[in-house]
Amino acid sequence: MSGPSQGCSGSCASAASFLSASDVSTILAQAIAEAQANNVPATIAVVDRVGNVLGVYRMTGSPVTVTIHSERTISGGLENLIVPSELAAIAKALTGAYLSSEGNAFTTRTASQIVQQNFNPGESNAPSGPLFGVQFSQLPCSDFMTRFSSEQAIGAGPHRSPLGLSADPGGFPLYKDGVPVGGIGVAADPDYTLDVRISDRDRDVDELIALAGTFGFGAPANRRADTITADGKTFRYSDVEYSDLARAAGNAPALSTLAPSVGQVIRVPAYADAQIRAGTAFGTPASGVRPADSDLSDLDAFVIVDNNNNNRFAIRAGTEGNSSALSAEEVRTLLREALKVANRARAQIRQPLGSQARVSVSIVDTHGEILAIARTRDAPIFGLDVSLQKARTAAFYSNPAAAADLQSLPDAVYLNASLDSAGVQFRTVANSSIGAYVTAVRDFLGLPGALSDGAFAFSDRAGGNLSRPFYPDGIIGTPPGPFSKPFESWSPFTVGLQLDLAYNQIALHVAHYLNQRPSDGVSPPPTGLALFLDGQLLAPAPTAANPIPLPDIGFSCSGLQRLRNGTQTFPGSVPIYRGEQLIGGIGVSGDGVDQDDMVSFLGLHNAGVALGGAIGNAPRERRADQLVPRGARLRYVQCPQAPFLDSTEQNVCEGK
């Protein structure tokens, strides 16, 4: 067996639950042995549960870069952008780690299944994937995600991903005694893509090599994605099993015995030094996620801390400086009520059946400032950044400043790239106007004042309806929502406004990395490649006098204060009102999108009741479900059936 057949239920993690340096070496050695058996050199990355990169090994002859593409013959967005293979491997490893918990084990193949235009992919007239848009989270520009520091190589997370979450097979979670402790990602072929046909079974070399690495650290059999359903459909975990490996797993030569000609552990600027390191124990201050202090401890909540164990997002009041702003006590009440709903809720995507939902909750004001973040025990890591994206998205699209903010932004400048003897040649493919989306949504809704008059309150479910390549969602041949590309030019790598808001920063981060990338994989700075844009020098190669010609990106994906970590397009958020006045947003992410909707909507309703009506959901006549564009009504929230573990209540959101 690769791991235990039985899993934990959310409370098994301890100070002993972490990957040791010896574990990391074993995982890398097992993956290398499988790559050798397939005669396919690979780049392999291992991370801990909060995204610390514990080691990246590049085999001699492995692809220097991979090309991002779907199987659609389109251009624009991230389509056809080349990226270093080590960044692809890290993104895959992070995806396996971040999507998984003690109750579910998801891979990059699972991610591929749940981000496409139909669920399942290939089914006509089926709604889009339940986590449509999640690939554009954990971004390198996020103000929430932490960053590698050479002074403290292993630090508090969650750490950023160079490319967001990956849908390219070859990323798995890693477990010890039923507890998720990290992830492995592999880039061996030159493509960074996704699986658009899940009716067959692939023999993907990235997946084979990564699976070999998990031997002894595999997910419990009854926690794998293929034991979990959504909308009556079973998720995919892997198209290969240990029996498919080219050599027996578990007897690989030790990493320390491999000749230098096989490859080496490499330095990955902004992510890792050229060493193998131990990971952090999740739930301890070192990981950046630890049990909450007394004001939330009775709810079994966890908070996010820095390297000095300080709560990064302690409860505070809104920053608007007016009488309508959320008070600290209102934020505390709202956070507690949302956590109470989550603790009663039945999870959708966890085993065993009947588990409680495990979620992350974020609260923001109308400026997008974080007023509180907390999570319940064992919630998947990805939900932290996503819950913040959701809260900000709901508050943003409900804000009368949204149109002007969007119209103030520069175009997204789509690029492709190639390597030659001079350096990296970036070429402009096309420009995409951010302001054009304002015109599109006004035309689509038939509302000349949309996004500038604050007349309607938009939840993430409603905004997501407007972000699909078909409207109504999934109905083949219908026009796109106004925040989406037309399907003829759409793919999960070029979706529309969501990516366009962050595209320039993602591309700049890749460019910065290439400018700093050591050609031999290990040389210390200054070393790297010269960069050219449309034939003109963008940044010279680093020198001692100019070691960082192109600085890394800042802590904002969009350039907008209100959307610093980008937007999100799947359900789980609502705006917060004081009577008719917008005062913020609450976002939730964790164990099912209907559960996310319920925790945000019902948590806000219950907080309003507890506070005597001081805050609440948007007035019903202002909610986006009053709008019926193209004859199809927008949705505001959708709460699950039989939602609670401790009662038989139904329709718990109705009439609120």
What are the defining features of this structure?
Beta-Lactamase, single chain, alpha+beta, 5-stranded antiparallel β-sheet, 16% strand, 6-stranded antiparallel β-sheet, 656 residues, 3 domains
Tell me what the structure shows:
The structure is a single chain. The protein is an alpha+beta fold. The chain has helices at 21-37, 85-98, 108-113, 205-213, 294-297, 328-344, 382-397, 402-407, 435-445, 460-465, 497-516, 593-610; strands at residues 43-48, 53-59, 65-68, 82-84, 171-176, 179-187, 191-192, 229-230, 233-234, 263-265, 289-291, 301-304, 360-364, 370-376, 412-420, 423-432, 531-533, 536-539, 573-578, 581-589. It folds into three domains: 21-265, Beta-Lactamase; 288-398 and 571-631, 2-Layer Sandwich (Beta-Lactamase); 408-453 and 481-563, no CATH class. α1 packs antiparallel against α4 (205-213) and α6 (328-344) crosses α12 (593-610). The model has no long low-confidence stretch (mean pLDDT 97).
